[in-house]
Amino acid sequence: MLDTLRRGTQYGLGLGLLSGTLEFAYLAATLRLDMSFIEAMSLASVSILIGGLFGLAIGGPTAVICAPITDRGRAQTWMPSRKDGFAMGIMALILAGFYAVPSGLQVFREGRMLAAFATLALPLPITGLVFVYARYVLRKIEVGVDPRIGWVPAAALSSVGFGLIAAAFLASVDRDPKEAVAGDPNVIVITIDTLRRDHVSIYEEDEAVPTPHFDAFAKEGILYKDAITPMPETGPAHASLFTGLHPVQHGVLANSYELSRQHDTLAELLGNEGYATAAFLSSFAVDARSGLDQGFQTYDDDFFQSVRGLSDIRLVGLALKVILRFGDPQKFPQLLERRAPDTNARALRWASTHTDMPVFLWVHYFEPHTPYERYDGVDDGIDPRWILSNERDFTYTEEVNAKLRERYSQEVTYVDEQLGELLKGLEDLGLRDNALVMITADHGESLDEHGILFNHHGLYDEVIRVPLALQATGLRPGTRVVEPQVRLMDLTPTALEYVKLKVPETIDGVDLLGYAEKLRKHSVVGTLMGRKTGSLSKGTLYGLRTGTDKGHVKYILDPDSATQALYDLTADPDELENIATVQVDAAKRSRQLVERTFEGVKLNEEVLDDATLKRLEALGYME
Prior knowledge:
Blueprint lengths: L1 H29 L6 H33 L10 H30 L3 H9 L1 H20 L8 H22 L13 E7 L19 H9 L1 E7 L5 H10 L3 H4 L15 H6 L4 E5 L17 E3 L13 H13 L13 H13 L6 E7 L18 H6 L8 H31 L6 E6 L5 E4 L2 E4 L5 H4 E8 L8 E7 L3 H8 L14 H4 L9 E6 L8 E9 L2 E8 L4 E6 L15 H14 L12 H9 L5
Parallel strand pairs: 1-5, 1-6, 2-10, 3-4, 3-5
Antiparallel strand pairs: 2-9, 6-9, 7-8, 11-12, 12-13, 13-14
Helix pairs in contact: 1-2, 1-3, 1-6, 2-3, 2-6, 3-4, 3-5, 11-19, 12-14
């Protein structure tokens, strides 16, 4: 028994090292991270080590379990080499199945049946090859031919060699287009998650905090005074921004939804024209799971600083799911978000190697989002991460609320500083010399208005209105401040018009530069939708926001309770007086339009694994 266990452990260790190498080779071919050779080798080392430990863990038990099988019936006549080869084949089947089956099922869910069948069947030929090769080698040993090098050292050396080759490939792989369109302008999109418009100082609102870098950018470019999001939630809002479609059209109705591959994104349209495309994200809510990665040759949604790409190793991913399922995600912020300086560093490193071709760059910051941090070193006696973890039983007092509002303001000022660093870095690299640069937010945040505490559900202006400023090289002289209402969906057609590409007919947005060049002057009607509370299961609100020379009007419908609200935003900017019973005709027309727009649409709880659900809860998205 002990001899069988020893041999099985050795066989499993060797096979595990090789499986870890093969997994890294797969990662090297599929990861869209901009990595140095040292970073790639760190990932390779961890992948090989984890594979070896996994093989070590299953090798001995597998050999012990297989021993009785090969000692029954006709199998009793098997030579030792055949018995050990059989055990190694079973080990290979387990290892290959561990990697191939989940991948095959995922491909099956995507509807690619042939590829799914091939992936699911892959462990069988691998098992056969390992059995044949193992028996060949072991038979030679059995007849007295000693190998020049043992099984484990041979597997280790092979792993190191192949790991070096794969790491070199990952560090040097050219993901960019074969032929760049020289001279075309760069397109740069910067989104600041959860940034309230009224906290940006250039808008001159009472709640504003110092944002000198955004202000300077807007003064040199174009400031949009009345920009809105179609839905105050990160995934849906960004999907609208990059497709030019309303959430009803693109189907991303919550952070748990995935953008369908049938929709063309701005990254895909520009990438098809030879642009180098890259995104650097700061939140789990917009990682590749969201479908927003479509069209990006580099998509950096990896938040680990020590070993980049670590969470893409399958065993690590499974371990993280267990930790998140049974632990507190707030204790693992590196699984939820990334700080702006780290995002800047990765974005500027990529940008420094792409100064000779047109680029489409998206940089996403998360700082204004919960949990709010302090940046002045003062201990105010509260822990926002603890509050989020215990929110169901936590009582918000006015003292706590005041401290949280102060923290939010500090995060706004801090992210503005980081925005300045990024803009300066891009300018030093020359990427702003011929470019369209767009800075906005996906939604705002309620800071105790309308009874909503530090979240962004509902359809009030605190969460609907967003800051928006553009700079465009070569823009014809015109207005620098745009008063009419515009929407996030308008950014994609604006970029396409600017680089002189045809705007697909399916796109719902308009060219924002037309306002600055005085070619467009009327507001765009905005249809709105959002959660009634932080829970997807508590119902949906639908709305309408219009802007004219005579003023702005907001309509909100709660279909579950059949209640409605109408606000005159010019006379009542705080949305405190519901005039639906006074302006009956206006409310009736608004309701008819809203019901036609959202007929059959409802937010439903998507099927989420527990780890994903707890991540979203930790970021304040779910209740």
